[in-house]
Amino acid sequence: MVEPVTVGIAAAALLATKFGEEFAQRAGEGAWNAVQRLRSVIAAKFHGDNDTERAVAALEQTPTEQTRALVAARITAAAQQDPVFGNEIRRLVEVARQDEAVSGFVAKAFDHAKQVNFGGDNAGQINL
Description:
- By secondary structure, the protein is mainly α.
- Helices cover about 70% and strands about 0% of the residues.
- The protein has one domain.
- The chain starts with a helix and ends in a 25-residue tail after the last helix.
């Protein structure tokens, strides 16, 4: 089971645009559908929360450390406060991470880890 802190970090990683573009090219249909559903569930949960809606939009357009951390924190807090939301986010993250295309993006964000490793052409440290 994905830990509450980790589910927010992993979900935020799955929302990032560069991940979405490359993921769409490489992922299987099940994982792609899980990420699309994750976006929908998060959008519905934070509908009307202007700060979080702006942060999610920014994360999807031009991810930064600040937006990743903010979105991860908001998802984590909501998952802890709303068990139904938390369980759905965990389930979708688990479905997505079963695809090999995801393992390069969200690796080791589980089992009490507090980091997400990103694949691709990243240089230097990425803090969440």
